[in-house]
Amino acid sequence: MAACIFCRIIKGEIPALKLFESEKTLAFLDIGPLSKGHALVIPKYHGAKLADIPDDQLSEILPTIKKLVTATGATDYNVLQNNGTIAHQQVHHVHFHMIPKPNETEGLGISWPATSGDMEQLKQLCEDIKSKM
Q1: Looking at residue 46, what is its pLDDT?
Q2: What Cα–Cα distance (Å) separates residue 93 from each residue in 10, 12, 21, 103?
Q3: What is the arithmetic mean of pLDDT over 119-128?
């Protein structure tokens, strides 16, 4: 945690262009933006992956993202959150990107390699997941 760049931003050890701050949440501009207004929203509670953060510490995340969308005037945008290195997480502190998509070339580009699902396998998977919730 001591080396976590986001924890250091929260503590004020590293400067950030803060957009919003509360007891649980911090939002700031990304210093390597994909588009104008690209912002990060983080819980102040340190956890590497979403499942590591207590629910009460996540309660302000989506309302804060919604405020950012409104404040930036973005009509098209992506909300992105990665968990783990192979899922492209680079900073191992939960964070959400709000990335305005003002046109076809700016913002996040996505390749979605979808496959056709087998309905029987999907039904079984659905039951398996529901039984663990």
Answers
A1: 98
A2: 12, 16, 17, 30
A3: 94
